[in-house]
Each structure stands twice: as C-alpha cells, then as structure tokens.
Amino acid sequence: MTKSKKSKSEYPVYQKIAADIAAKIVDKHYQIGEKIYARSSVASQYAVSAETARRAICILSDMKIVETIKGSGVRIVSYEKAVQFVKQFRNVRMLNDVRREIISSIDKQIDDNNNLKKLVNELVDKTNRFKSINSFMPFEIDIDKSAVHLGKTISEVNFWHNTTATVVAIRTQDSLVLSPGPYATLNEDDTLYFIGDEECYERVLKFIYSK
To answer: Treating both helix axes as pointing N-terminal to C-terminal, what angle do 39-46 and 50-62 enclose, rounded to 10 degrees?
Structure first.
C-alpha cells in the first residue's frame, strides 16, 4: 500500500496554538485591548517550549491580531483580523481534510486494483492447472429453432467429420444423455456437450447455425 498518510498532524504546533488563541478572541474569551499570557505563560498553558510559544505569538503579530509590547506582554488589537485568521485556518484545514480523503480513496483503489490483479492471476493460474489435468473438459452449445440440422442424427450430419468434435452428452428437457451415440438426434432446446481442440467450439457453432 502507498504510504501517503502522515502519522502526525499536518499542522505545526505553533500554528495550532495561534489558531486556538485567535478562536478565543473570536469567542470573546479575550477582549480588545486585553493583555494575554506572556510567552512563558503560553508555553506553560499549551505545554510547549518557549520557542514554540514565541512562533505562535509571531503569527498573531504578523496577522495584526496582537501587538507585542516590549516589557509589557502581548495585547489584543483586532477582533476582525482574528475572525479572518480563524476562517482562513479552518478553510485550509477543510481543504487538507478533503485532500486526505482523496488520497485515502486513491490508496484504497490502488489496493483494490492490486488485489484484483492478484485474484485474476490466481484464477488464470488455477484455470491453466485445471485444464492441464482436465483436457476433456466439454464445451456446450444450446440448440434453438434456428439450427439447420434439427431432427437429424449425429451420424446423418457427419458431425465429427465436419467439426472434429466428439459429442459426449446431450441434455434434453427431461434428462441428460451421456455418450448418446451416432443415432442421437439434434432437437430444439437441447444442449449439446462436446470435446475437441480449442477451435472446435467455433466450428461446431458455425456448423449448427450456418446455412
């Protein structure tokens, strides 16, 4: 299987922290002008390193959502920018989720195709083996009213001479006749079973139905 899925989140932790803080601003958990946690406090709250917390604050600062006041922490300055950032982050996340679903579907399709290919190869292999030990596996043809030799015997139509196929059974409406012999007749709604080489089916079909 193609390894397209990532085992970890596709979003860096600092981006998720920035989005979470912005969402809290949108939800009015924080008010405009209010100071929020310093980097060390953000790091503690989200259980991340000070560097990760710094990068999260930098994103919010770059988006003009907060401003960093040297020696005085971080202050919220824009509700609208926070709304814009949250919408953007959610849209990107939605697109990534769709992308992951598509990749997952493609991976499944590849797996299904590989499994189908394996099953087909197994079928071909087993069919060839079956043919090798069952060289007399019969062909069959249904006889309908358009057949040209209705009512005639196998001997009368020189069946083997014209097709090089040997009739081994005839199924009628009432029964299955094995080894029917040269005097069996070809009747409408019968099913003819015969053996021969690989081309004999086409010869029998042509002989039965070609005028």
So the answer is: 110
* Residue 65 in tokens: 């959502």
Bridge partners (DSSP) of residue 141 are 192
Helix (H, G, I), strand (E, B) or coil at 72: coil
- Whole-structure pTM over 0.70, yes or no? no
Mean pLDDT of 18-25: 90
Q: For the chain, give the mean pLDDT.
A: 85
The span from the CA of 12 to the CA of 115, in Å, is: 36
Which one-letter DSSP state was computed for residue 128?
A: H
**Could you write out the DSSP letters of every residue in 144-211?**
-TT-TTTT-BTTTTTHHHHH--EEEEEE-SS-EEES--TT-B--TT-EEEEE--TTHHHHHHHHHH--
Residues in CB range of 164: below 8 A, 6 or more apart: 196, 197, 200, 203
- Other beta carbons within 10 angstroms of residue 88's beta carbon come to 13
Cα separation, 165 vs 203, whole angstroms: 9
Torsion angles phi and psi, residue 205, rounded to 5: -60, -45
Banded model confidence at residue 130, pLDDT cuts 50, 70, 90: low
pLDDT score of 184: 93
